[in-house]
Amino acid sequence: MGFYDYSVKNAKGEDVPMSDFKGRVVLVVNTATGCGFTPQYKDLESMYEKYHDQGFEILDIPCNQFAGQTPGTDEEIHEFCTLKYNTKFPQMKKSDVNGSNELPLYTYLKSQQGFRGFGKGAKALAMSALLHKVDKDYKNNPKIKWNFTKFLVDREGNVVERFEPTEDMKVVESAVKAKL
Fold first, then answer.
1. Does residue 81 carry a catalytic annotation?
2. pLDDT in tens, 71-106
3. Residue 53's domain is classified under what CATH number?
4. N or C: which end of the chain has fewer CB within 10 A?
5. How many CA atoms lie within 13 A of 33 on its CB side?
């Protein structure tokens, strides 16, 4: 199975097949409304506005698995994002990205691009320290580590990059631009 064989539910509970995005560059992001990385919504929306007409999509998949930082309903999450960050990209139903109830799409994404570290800098060190307390073996498994982990899918449906939340959004944008 490939990327286009999966589907997720939108906030209304309707299936959204990934095949709807054939020929487009897609960034799949697990998001949260009350996280230190939540301001990345601003950068995501900016990228969406710049590149959407060139074939770029963002799939926003809210997730409450990381310190309960997305406690609201799908409607409350959508309202928060549109009012605070003026987001226009598609927002899906709040879902799990790890564990027995994880979206099959995430099982696939993680199988294609595993965890390779948080990089360098203060945010990377802080995330490493936090995760070491929660999961001493976090470096050796493909699980999603935190909110705002991003997977980049090219126009052919290949999962070509995984970006941890600590990655500079300019690096993410540069990778998106290269695939357009």
1. no
2. 999 999 999 999 999 999 999 999 999 999 999 999
3. 3.40.30.10
4. N
5. 21
